Amino acid sequence: MPEINNLNRAYKSYRTYKAVKVYMTDEKWDALCERLEGQYPDLNRYREKLEGEHGGSREALEFFGPVGEMRVVRVSKPSVASVEHHYSHRQGDTAKDKYNYSDTELTHKVHVYREVDGEWEEMSGDHLNM
Q: What is the domain range of residue 32?
């Protein structure tokens, strides 16, 4: 039985690690920006607001990295506070979901792109140690 307990513990820690790896905190983002600014003097940093019902912002870093022109983008949007499901039992009618967004909490996702033949291609962020 000790092997099963160790396996369960390993699975839980892997699951937690994956969840933490998807999102980036403000402190981690600032540390990444400082590190990239130190490594690449030609770094271009900008921020833009996202249009739409819930808004948000996008912050991007563009620089010439080891694989050519690169872009690191952090998208910040309001997090989903709750979801309301409205079901209908009438024939031909569909269920509707209403998403309630938080006014104070944001989710942050980071995407890494490289330029290939004038197009931005998404790549893994593992080489940035995120």
A: 26-128
